[in-house]
Design goal:
By secondary structure, the protein is mainly beta. It has a single domain, classed as outer membrane lipoprotein receptor (LolB), chain A, CATH 2.50.20.10. It is about 15% helix and about 45% strand. It has a 13-stranded antiparallel β-sheet with strand order 8-7-6-5-4-1-15-14-13-12-11-10-9, covered by helices on one side. The radius of gyration is 20 Å and the shape is globular. About 35% of the residues are buried.
Length: about 300
């Protein structure tokens, strides 16, 4: 779960990693003697005018604002700094679209066929606890996969892939989890968390004008965040690039359908688009529980 980027950042990261693992497990294949069955994989297509590759339009002219003014309006729109600081834990429940994909596989007649797998909705529960703990449970094929991170170390349990032991995060997964900004998002208390934010112009995002901000993390990684010029809620952000066909593909994450949850504005739809991949991945939130009682033991592997 790889989303709060639901609040701004937890939800998208953990769900994204698990999504890729689910795709690998769900990919159908045909067993034949020779040649061996092809491993199904997302079909990469040339860029076309989808969400990410929409027709280029002129940058909108918006009232000039300083970066701090934009951030202040954004924080207020989300419910206010005090309201979010009072959130010590939060749990999201909903469904993640595994993303219907086009793939190629070898048929029983040993010919290469292109097939399309319909999207599967996977129920998930994502919990986060300050300062930097997360737990994701994802139901797939009657089994529950789990990812946990206690702020230092992460573990994953993936029975749908035939892995019935808890495995430690890889070095890359640990680095990714550690870099996540948590439930406050990239913009709140940016300087004190080693992040530098600067204005990067304006853009139209899904037909609406937005301020584009450039965020440089302490590790030097640069991300962009788009803030809607009317609501001042986050409407788009850069996701972690994905490696497909031996090359990296840019990722865009769109946040929509904001609703109030105990005084907090939460995005209830998060859609991820990978450049060159025809199908998008959509996460929908059905319920949000603010400040549930969560024991620290829930964020590490069972003893």
């Amino acid at each position: 779960m790889k989303a709060s980027r639901f609040s701004g950042p937890i939800l998208t990261t953990g769900l994204a990693c698990m999504t890729l693992q689910v795709h690998a497990a769900a990919s159908p294949s045909t067993t034949v003697a020779k040649p061996s069955a092809a491993v199904a994989k997302p079909h990469v297509v040339p860029p076309k005018p989808t969400i990410m590759h929409s027709k280029v339009v002129a940058a909108p002219v918006l009232p000039p604002m300083t970066v701090q003014q934009i951030i202040d309006r954004h924080v207020a729109a989300r419910g206010g700094a005090a309201a979010w600081k009072a959130v010590l834990s939060i749990t999201f429940k909903g469904n993640m679209g595994a993303g219907g994909t086009v793939y190629e596989a070898v048929s029983a007649k040993r010919s290469l066929e292109r097939k399309e797998r319909p999207e599967v909705l996977l129920p998930f529960t994502l919990s986060s606890k300050r300062p930097h703990k997360t737990r994701l449970e994802l139901n797939f094929n009657g089994q529950t996969a789990v990812q946990v991170y206690d702020g230092t170390a992460g573990y994953k349990y993936r029975p749908f892939m035939g892995r019935n032991d808890w495995e430690p995060y890889s070095a890359d997964e640990t680095k990714l989890a550690a870099a996540e900004p948590g439930m406050d998002g990239l913009l709140v208390d940016a300087a004190s968390n080693g992040r530098h934010v600067e204005s990067a112009g304006t853009d139209m995002v899904e037909g609406n004008p937005a301020y584009r901000l450039r965020v440089t993390r302490a590790d030097g990684k640069v991300l962009r965040v788009w803030i809607d010029a009317k609501s001042f809620l986050e409407t788009k952000e850069d996701g972690a690039p994905r490696k497909l066909d031996a090359r990296m593909h840019p990722v865009s994450i769109y946040l929509r359908d904001y609703k109030p949850e105990q005084g907090l504005m939460i995005a209830h739809t998060v859609e991820t688009e990978v450049q060159g991949v025809a199908k998008t991945e959509k996460i929908t939130v059905d319920s949000v529980l603010v400040n549930p009682k969560l024991d620290d033991s829930q964020f590490t592997k069972p003893k």
